[in-house]
Amino acid sequence: MTFLSTYSAVNYFTILLGFAMLIPINAAAEQTNRLIHEQSPYLLQHAHNPVDWFPWGAEAFSKAEDEGKLIFLSIGYSTCHWCHVMEDESFTNDEVAAELKKNYIAIKVDREERPDIDQFYMQVGIELSGSGGWPLTIIMTPEKIPIFAGTYFPPERRFNRPGLLEILPEIATAWQKDPAALLQGGKAVINLLQQRQNTSATGKNLTIVQLQQAERMLQQNFEPIHGGFGEAPKFPQPHILSFLLLRYYRTANPELLQMVEKTLQEMREGGIYDQIGFGFHRYSTDTEWLVPHFEKMLYDQAGLARVYLEAFQLTGKTEYKTTAEEIFNYVLYRLRDPKGGFYSAEDADSNGVEGEFYVWQEQEIIDLLGEERGKRFARIFNALPTGNFSAYIPDEPAGTNILHRGKSLDEWAEIVDLPLAELQQQLEEDRQRLFTAREQRVHPFLDDKVITAWNGQMISSLALGGRGLDDPQLLKAAEEASQFIFSQLQTESGQLLRRWRNGEAAINAFASDYAFLARGMLDLYQSNLDPDALEKALLLAEQLATQFTDQHGQLFETSAASELPMRTNQLYDGALPSAGSVTIEIFARLYLVTGEQLWNQRAEALVQASAAQIIRSPAGYSQFLLGVSLLLEPTRELVIVGNKNSPDTVALLAEVQQQYMPDLTLILRPMDHSETIDKLVPFIDGMNSLNHQATAYLCENFACQRPQTKPEELHRLLEQTRH
After folding, report:
1. How much is the mean pLDDT over the chain?
2. How far apart are the C-alpha atoms of 308 and 311, rounded to whole Å?
3. Which residues pair with 105 in a beta bridge?
């Protein structure tokens, strides 16, 4: 049997990693189902299936209850390879469609629109098998109690994997014979998850020890030859690199900085980076960062741009600055909606072929650039006549190349005997020619839905870019994105919505949306020093605290009004930082900005509710520990009294705004019209300018040193108080 039995089930659940392949929809097909009325690109990809799909909603569950049928729930996303394989094999199969219609109500969910549904049912699947993946396949009752969990299933048994035509009638028969037995197993799993969740809120605390343990664990897991952590597949995980940069800043341990720099350099030179159009692909399938999963996600661009900027600020190395600028170039060119928001992703395939848009033949490069320049470009970017990655993908057509640099441009300048600046100029000219030619190819599918949380991340990175690179255009893009979110994805009552597409905003936002957007507004305030951004951050954080936390301080992805059997509170920092990890940073930073004890109390409560889980494996919670460090380690507040655009104020701001100072909170109190910021930040009341000059107050734990008006004196104080 393939249904749940108390705590266990036959293990059909497996992680399946692969290259994304979008199966093109036949727009001319006459057959449609209810998904044709949805906005989600993923749901629309299934709108022409013979399966009688429903979107998640009351209609589907009422019909299941009225007809006494089980629910067949399928969860995925628009650029998921095995989701499209299962669609092509199973959901276009008339026999599978008939079997589903006979005994089930079929529901399709986009996990990017509904992370709450995905998180809960993924926990169920992982509890049963120890692993998870997409597509996620769940069979459950109309009351949403799961009785079966799996991932990808073909129509018929293959390679010892059961097929849907075997599974579906088995479970339907078992349900008709003894529904109580199946319900018992599903309820037992939910009870186990709830008990574990309650046990985690035990009131423990975190100390500097967990920060040190995380450092050591990451050092042990570091792959020194090519950078990154662990073996293939390798994910960028920029929050881990940001954590290590912070630990280097605090400890001056050179090994931590070396780990970050090695990883950043290898990724930038590898095939995971789009050497022609810029931006990072999803992950590397090998240890060398050579063969990527070619999908590009907005949240990866946001996180990686941020950490490259941090590395530039800390080291002054222009290669990191250039990479950040290139990422922003890609995002603003390809992922930006004309109204200012940012789209979610680009798929991996075009013409139904994985990576076809991105790969090159050596002769193609020579034909475009000429014999001499073409051969040099091919040499620098490792394009071979025979192709350069057939060892990883033996069936790849002969001569196919993923462009990547094996050496830095400084090294190549010596090899080809050209001044570095001249080589850079010529390679940029060559890149632009190849880019222009590549633009004529069939582009990968663009998932053009706007997700609030991911836009919050991009606002953070653009704001940091505007400040750290002294680039007004990046700051303007951050401000326009925030204006888009608050005009298009906020209701009149002040509640956020999750998704916007084609002018339609929908789905009540989740904790991750509030958290990432609140952090975006905090970062925007640190860059433009407009109190409106700080006020928005405070309002969002208040909603986060009141709608998504319980009496223990635990943060949940959904509000108390969740429609699922239980609320999830995922803390682990995976490809994306968790909502809880971002929230602890927000609460800690708001305490440092405002001096209000309420935010410190909320931060401490969240730490105590989360500590038991984090103590077991601190390295898995690097983003959370970034926030914890603000509570455990020394911090500084800098209040500058002055008019924002006056030369003396600008001179004082220049001492901090382009520096890597993660322990410093910046506040601007205008000489005139300071009412708004005084209300938001009470502790600055009484801080005035000296002799009508811009004046800096540098404080530690709200105890301030003598005010300074000269930039060089402020610089000296900043150096003296650095921890």
Report:
1. 92
2. 5
3. 71
Location of structure tokens 């990808």: 152
For residue 321, what are its two tokens?
Answer: 């600055």
CA end-to-end span of the chain: 61
Residue whose structure tokens are 């941090």? 310
Instruction: Give the C-alpha separation, 719 to 300, whole Å.
Output: 33
Average pLDDT over residues 145-168: 92
Q: Tokens standing for 149?
A: 């969990």
Cα angle: 515, vertex 633, 570; to 5 degrees = 30
The number of beta carbons lying within 10 Å of the beta carbon of residue 426 is: 16
**Residue-by-residue DSSP string for 694-705:** -EEEEEETTEE-
Q: Count Cβ atoms within 10 A of the Cβ of residue 338 and give its class: 0-12 exposed, 13-18 middle, 19 or more buried.
A: exposed
Q: What is the DSSP letter of 490?
A: B
Do the beta carbons of residue 146 and residue 4 sit within 8 Å? yes
| Long-range contacts, 507-510 (Cβ 8 Å, 24+) | 507/113, 507/114, 508/559, 509/452, 509/453, 510/115, 510/116, 510/453, 510/557, 510/558, 510/579
Judge whether residue 6 has pLDDT over 60.
no
Q: Residue 708 in 3-state DSSP?
A: strand
- Separation CA 524–CA 481 (nearest Å): 11
Please state the pTM of the whole predicted model.
Answer: 0.93
Residues of the chain by 3-state class (helix, strand, coil), percent to 5: 50, 15, 35
Beta strands in 224-354 (DSSP E): 283-284, 292-293, 296-297, 345-346, 349-350, 353-354
Other C-beta atoms lying within 10 Å of the C-beta of residue 207: 12
Does residue 203 carry a pLDDT above 70? no
CATH code of the domain made up of 34-200: 3.40.30.10
Q: What is the CATH code for 636-721?
A: 3.40.30
User: Contact at 8 Å (CB) between 505 and 497?
Assistant: yes
- Helix (H, G, I), strand (E, B), or coil: what is residue 174? helix
pLDDT in tens, 639-692: 999 999 999 999 999 999 999 999 999 999 998 889 999 999 999 988 999 999
pLDDT of 1: 33
Q: Are 669 and 687 in contact (CB under 8 A)?
A: yes
Burial label for 713, CB within 10 Å (0-12, 13-18, 19+), is middle
Residue 11 has pLDDT above 50, yes or no: no
- Residue 181 CA to residue 174 CA, distance in Å, equals 9
